[in-house]
Amino acid sequence: MVSHFSQYISILTDASVRILATGDSLFCQGDAAQYIYVVEKGKVRMLRYTIEGHQVNLHTAVAGESFAEAALFADHYHCNAIADTESRILCYSKKEILAMLRSNPERGEEFMALLAQQIRTLRTHLELRTIRSAFERVLQYFLLLSDLGNNDIIIDSSWKSVAHELGLAHETFYRTLAKLEKQGFIERKEKTIKVIKLTL
Amino acid sequence: MVSHFSQYISILTDASVRILATGDSLFCQGDAAQYIYVVEKGKVRMLRYTIEGHQVNLHTAVAGESFAEAALFADHYHCNAIADTESRILCYSKKEILAMLRSNPERGEEFMALLAQQIRTLRTHLELRTIRSAFERVLQYFLLLSDLGNNDIIIDSSWKSVAHELGLAHETFYRTLAKLEKQGFIERKEKTIKVIKLTL
DNA sequence: CGAGTCGTTGAACGGAATCAATCGTCGTGG
DNA sequence: CCACGACGATTGATTCCGTTCAACGACTCG
Lengths: 200, 200
Hints:
Two copies of one chain form a homodimer. By secondary structure, the first copy, chain A, is an alpha+beta fold.
């Protein structure tokens, strides 16, 4: 989720800059993978399309995050990236990055750690998706967030996007929130702060 | 999915061996992460538990695969690993692996590629889970498999485990298979070979 | 030859998606 | 400044479809 890679990547290599308007495409599935990216400002959403044309969101990278790192070791991108809002994107050449990682073992290790972190995050998401019940799913989501920085959870994104992240219709998510609160599992102060009450 | 890491890891570092009976635990969530592993024989399933005590499978590593690589960069394991069958496991010390990766940039790069591959696999799984309709989900699954080695797909695992991988009840999966065949999207020769007919 | 499991199909249930409507807020432009 | 549109948050009613329970044949394994 959080990427610290962007913080040192910029020191070592030159980046070109791309400005994207809302809805602009950065790359498409199948394009030759030449760059990896850091969001300086804005939001970039990665998605694929099903046969019926439905969109499937893979990830949304926000300011400060790098993305498409996995493309370092692939010939082409395996998804599409479009700007969700007006965005400023730093583009780092794969070749330069690879050269840097090769010549600089400590940075290489940091990069591995970044990849490992992403794997953990993805596994966690996958774990959530295997929970069928919306109630259990949302509860587990909060529990996972809570044991990182106990008790109080602050959600900075909109409920709607959280619902989407959890793979639930937003209506279902709202209802589930209300149910969790009614049954005393959570408490909601204002719209952004959360407290977990029970872990049973 | 497929890990080639195991093939060269054994050349460079010594591994201790653990023999597990069916149901034996290799490590538990929260244990200090000291080793990463390769399945020499058998199957090891990684899982977590929800609050209600339900099991959530994260991954099943089979013979030849490495697993828990992400733990290289974590203090403790974030899931449980238990043997699904009698298994023989090679255990590699984190410290030694890290030292090897540090001193040997090419191997480090291979390892990064392995992690990147896992990220791609996980993303694909996540993508599939966001498709609500069982019909589309299964179809998309076959399409993803087919554009790796076009047309014919050979499934080596049981339908049941595929169903589980897709997050579907096996009954639903069987029905969906039949429906896909009836509508001409796929063809089934015997139980293991598949042919995709339409991509519309 | 049972015991166990996979593959398969039928019937019924439940719960999440979907459609729909309301309210509040925020930003935008006339 | 206010009207307007856009969107998030919320709740109600209905539909749909995947799960679950159940039963059966085929096959393997001990």
